[in-house]
């Protein structure tokens, strides 16, 4: 029996209410959340997991309403992370009101969560969302009757137009104040189950008086369903034994596990209510959405359309995003020059170096990713909100499942060829934690755009033109193969476990509002700047410092100064030769400074470790510098070869130097190592942010570096026997 | 027993009862004239018979009033009609005798035949219909035997045909049994009803939560290009699942 004590709480002049927003995925929960909070929202993570936590506030008179958007779930069992989080928030967070957003055009399945919320005994309001769409589909609701049948207040809403939001807030406040009496109806589970429920409740009343404010009936139901979390919570051997016996007896009587019977009764109850209160006036078996699907997921056309769309996404992210990235880069170069101009020419001020090379360079390094992140998330918002992403997963799942990943992993892997940072952010579309982590960890093996300058420098330096294209292909292919192997390895070891069920709804196609897409894009960009940006900036300054200290010994500085004075004093030579000699002196000094710095010393220190790979200290120093960003490898190499840092990938002097110092095998090993090893600091920062743990970020850093060492050493050692 | 023997009806009274039963069935009530016409007898003998039947409480009879059957009378009449039908069917179906002749013979035999013999007749007809060595072909064979001077056809061939028949029947039976399959085996466009979900754990739970409960109708919509996940329609929405998972859903063709 419903056991609701009506509490007439008088809302004082300024109160804060906590409202939890629950609902199925694709029920339009996010649009309701956006309509309620507008821009007053922030995105974070639930502690310890990758699941996003979104919260926002809105005002209602003097009342501040804090709205927490729970993860979208179909049920309240404890099998998926989302469900566990939603449930623990509902039980432990004790929200004042729970709003369950229900998709009116798919009422039966949506109400399944609602009846569980009723059973959980939370103060509930149903938002019958997309009621306009349902009306257009010819579905009519008798809301008064439905309210009576379920015993909870129902407000029809249209999320994207904001219709019904005001009314929803009114009802929420009224329910919170206890002004709206509700008498939720419970699902009748039939004689046999009810009898056991009563018995279990009796046992609990005797031995577990406190249940964290959760109704006993709910706990008894969960015990019959065999819910591990609730069993741990109850922790009374008596009650658990009683529950096991009840489950066993029910299995004999029902011929099936009670959880099946319970699910069945819930659906039967809902179906009964819907039959009475919902009328379908138009028989629409073949909707617009079905017509689109007949083309888009067609056996023949499906893949070409998918690949075409992926091509568009890639082009949008990196081709359209290219020019703004260049503007940002050149903007920061200009800014650096302008700031450097504040000091007299030739000044060796440390502050100048910190500002120009450390801070401005670092901020530039953060902001340069923004255009592609914004554009990628614009594309992803459209793919997800229209419902196409689920179809993409449907099309690609067979392929990705073979590697131990999910169909949706395809998109991040593809974006990885452009840049790992947005690619790792794109793993957000994966629901399962294990899938997300695996994808995140192997994405850097997709050879990103920043590694291309390295290949462009090395391949022509060592190999004849006919080999150029095949070698480039080989490098990319090696990355893919390694990613596949690593993903399989991870799934077999660290991220082992039952493959999460690929039981996914294909929601009807909908055109998202510009507002929701922009908000989505904005939230992602903001999250990147706040969380990953600070880490990237920190590492950039650290790298700057490593390159700066310790300074070149005074004796050497004086020697370079003396040589410079000599050159300036020589009047026998032309102006041009003098300038060239001065430049080469400057480069030699930069090289000496780098060698003397911490980075150079570490590079020297690493030489014995990297020798089996065929590298000397120059290459290892350049590799450390490349941690800032892969393409920095080229300019670092320029410095260590005393050619100055303005070396581009098509620099002939640098190629000559490489050719003179290394064999083609070593050249190949450099590319191999750059492909596999240490992703750049931005990747590590974003992995830290997305996995919500330094552990995984450092594991990625360490794991990939070790892998690079092993593979490169193997190639070099075997190769040097033949060449 | 004593009561039933006192009710022993003569065959002519049984004919009267049968006639009244049939007239009542057609017109709801009978008159003396109808009965006389149907049985081709005089009005006076009808009156005598009706009196005799009324004495046994089988008909409601008063002079010049309409005649109906009592409940008891209807039972007795129905029994007689049943005997008639069974015999007639036996003559037509098994013995291949013409309808009118069969009818007349049944009319006579129905009064003489005992309950046990009648039951055996019924069982025999059923047996002939059901036994693979009987059946309509076998009866036709009997007709052929009668019409063609007691000649038999190719007995060996006939037995072989019967055997083939039995085997093919067995196959269809097995196919019907196979109406139970898993969702992974269901063909594209096929509509099936869920019987149960096997196994335990998260996948089963998820399937139940998504509405895959016993009795729910599922329609297989399409298969992905690489042949794995399938798309189904369930409870009015579209769901995709891998064949591994569909394997766990036992369904029945509808």
Q: How many beta-strand elements of chain B? A: 8
The largest sheet of chain A has its strands arranged as: 2-3-4-1-5-6-8
- Rounded to the nearest angstrom, the distance between the terminal CA atoms of chain B is 52 Å
Low-confidence parts of chain A, pLDDT < 50 over ≥5 residues? 1-13
Secondary structure category of chain B:
alpha+beta
Q: At CATH's second level, what is the architecture of the domain at 181-253 in chain B?
A: Roll
Give the termini distance of chain A in whole angstroms. Answer: 84 Å
Mean pLDDT of chain A: 82
What is the largest interface, and how many residues per chain?
A-B, 41 and 36 residues
Number of helices of chain A: 32
Q: What amount of the residues of chain A lies in strands?
A: 5-15%
Task: Tell me the CATH topology of the domain at 181-253 in chain B.
Answer: SH3 type barrels
Bin the helical content of chain A: 55-70%
Radius of gyration of chain B: 31 Å
Q: What is the H/E string of chain B?
A: HHHHEEHHHHHEEHEEEHE
Alpha plus pi helix count of chain B: 11
What structural class do the secondary elements of chain A suggest? alpha/beta
How would you describe the oligomerization state of the chains in this entry?
A: heterodimer
Task: Enumerate the spans of chain B where pLDDT stays under 50 for 5 or more consecutive residues.
Answer: 1-6
């Amino acid at each position: 029996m419903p056991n609701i004590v009506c509490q007439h709480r008088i809302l004082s002049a300024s109160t804060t209410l906590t409202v939890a927003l629950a609902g199925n995925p694709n029920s339009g929960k996010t649009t309701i959340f956006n309509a309620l909070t507008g821009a007053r929202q922030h995105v974070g993570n639930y502690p310890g997991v990758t699941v996003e936590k979104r919260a926002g506030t809105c005002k209602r008179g003097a009342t501040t309403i804090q709205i927490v958007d729970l993860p979208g779930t179909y049920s309240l069992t404890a099998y998926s992370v989302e469900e566990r989080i939603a449930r623990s928030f509902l039980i432990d967070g004790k929200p004042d009101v729970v709003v369950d957003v229900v998709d009116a055009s798919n009422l039966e399945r949506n109400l399944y969560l609602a009846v569980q919320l009723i059973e959980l005994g939370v103060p509930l309001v149903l938002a019958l969302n997309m009621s306009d769409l349902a009306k257009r589909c010819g579905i009519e609701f008798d809301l008064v009757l439905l309210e009576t049948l379920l015993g909870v207040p129902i407000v029809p809403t249209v999320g994207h137009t904001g219709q019904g939001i005001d009314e929803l807030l009114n009802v929420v406040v009224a329910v919170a104040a206890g002004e709206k009496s509700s008498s939720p109806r419970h699902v009748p589970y039939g004689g046999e189950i009810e009898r056991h429920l009563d018995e279990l409740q009796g046992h609990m009343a005797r031995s577990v008086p406190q249940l964290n404010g959760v109704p006993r009936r709910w706990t008894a139901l969960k015990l019959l369903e065999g819910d591990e979390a609730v069993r741990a919570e109850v922790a009374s051997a008596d009650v658990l034994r009683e529950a096991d016996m009840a489950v066993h007896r029910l299995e004999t009587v029902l011929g099936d596990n009670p959880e099946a019977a319970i699910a069945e009764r819930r659906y039967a109850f809902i179906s009964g209510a819907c039959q009475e209160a919902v009328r379908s006036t138009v028989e629409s078996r073949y909707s617009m959405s079905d017509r689109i699907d007949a083309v888009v997921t067609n056996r023949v056309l499906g893949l070409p359309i998918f690949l075409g769309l992926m091509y568009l996404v890639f082009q949008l992210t990196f081709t359209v995003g290219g020019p703004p990235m260049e503007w940002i880069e050149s903007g920061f170069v200009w800014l650096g020059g302008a700031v450097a101009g504040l000091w007299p020419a030739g000044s060796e001020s440390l502050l100048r170096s910190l500002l120009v090379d450390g801070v401005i360079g670092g901020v530039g390094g953060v902001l340069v990713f923004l255009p592609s992140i914004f554009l990628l998330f614009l594309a992803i918002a459209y793919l997800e909100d229209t419902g196409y992403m689920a179809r993409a997963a449907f099309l690609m799942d067979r392929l990705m499942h073979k590697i131990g990943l999910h169909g949706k992993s395809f998109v991040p892997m593809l974006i990885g060829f452009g840049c790992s940072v947005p690619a790792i952010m794109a793993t957000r579309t994966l629901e399962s934690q294990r899938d997300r982590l695996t994808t995140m960890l192997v994405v850097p093996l997709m050879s990103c755009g920043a590694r291309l300058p390295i290949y462009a420098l090395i391949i022509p330096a060592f190999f004849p033109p006919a080999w150029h294209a095949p070698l480039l292909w080989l490098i990319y292919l090696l990355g893919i193969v390694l990613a596949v192997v690593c993903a399989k390895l991870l799934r077999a070891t660290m991220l082992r476990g039952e493959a999460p069920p690929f039981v996914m709804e294909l929601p009807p196609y909908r055109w998202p509002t510009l507002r929701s897409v922009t908000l989505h894009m904005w939230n992602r960009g903001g999250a990147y700047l706040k969380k990953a940006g600070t880490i990237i900036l920190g590492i950039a300054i650290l790298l700057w410092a490593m390159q700066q200290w310790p300074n070149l010994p005074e004796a050497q500085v004086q020697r370079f100064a003396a040589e410079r004075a000599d050159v300036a004093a020589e009047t026998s030579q032309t102006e041009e030769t003098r300038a060239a000699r001065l430049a080469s002196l400057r480069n030699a000094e930069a090289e000496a400074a780098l060698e003397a710095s911490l980075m150079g010393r570490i590079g020297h220190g690493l030489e014995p470790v990297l020798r089996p790979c065929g590298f000397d200290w120059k290459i290892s120093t350049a590799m450390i510098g490349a941690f800032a960003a892969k393409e920095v490898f080229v300019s670092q190499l320029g410095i260590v070869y005393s050619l100055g840092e303005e070396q581009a990938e098509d620099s002939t002097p640098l190629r000559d130097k490489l050719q003179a110092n290394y064999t083609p095998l070593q050249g190949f090993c450099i590319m191999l190592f750059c492909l596999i090893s240490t992703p750049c600091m931005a990747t590590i920062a974003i992995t830290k942010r997305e996995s919500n743990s330094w552990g995984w970020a450092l594991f990625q850093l360490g794991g990939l570096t070790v892998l690079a060492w092993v593979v490169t050493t193997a190639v070099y050692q075997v190769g040097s026997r033949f060449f | 027993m004593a009561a039933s023997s006192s009710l022993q009806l003569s065959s002519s009274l049984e004919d009267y009862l049968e006639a009244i039963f049939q007239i009542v069935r057609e017109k709801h009530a009978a008159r003396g004239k109808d009965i006389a016409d149907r049985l081709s007898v005089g009005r006076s003998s009808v009156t005598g018979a009706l009196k005799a039947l009324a004495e046994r409480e089988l008909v409601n009879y008063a002079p010049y009033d309409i005649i109906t059957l009592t409940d008891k009378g209807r039972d007795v009449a129905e029994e007689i009609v049943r005997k008639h039908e069974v015999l007639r069917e036996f003559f037509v179906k098994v013995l291949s005798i013409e309808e009118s002749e069969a009818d007349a013979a049944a009319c006579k035999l129905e009064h003489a035949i005992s309950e046990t013999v009648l039951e055996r007749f019924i069982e025999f007809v059923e047996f002939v219909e059901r036994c693979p060595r009987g059946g309509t072909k076998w009866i036709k064979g009997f007709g052929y035997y009668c019409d063609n001077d007691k000649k038999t056809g190719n007995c060996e061939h006939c037995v072989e045909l019967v055997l083939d028949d039995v085997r093919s029947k067995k196959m269809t039976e097995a196919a019907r049994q196979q109406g139970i399959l898993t969702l992974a085996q269901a063909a594209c466009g096929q509509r099936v009803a869920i019987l149960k979900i096997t196994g335990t754990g998260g996948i089963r739970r998820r399937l139940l939560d998504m509405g895959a409960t016993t009795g729910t109708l599922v329609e297989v919509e399409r298969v992905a290009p690489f042949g794995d996940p399938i798309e189904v329609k369930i409870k009015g929405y579209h769901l995709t699942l891998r064949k591994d998972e569909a394997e766990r859903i036992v369904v029945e063709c509808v």
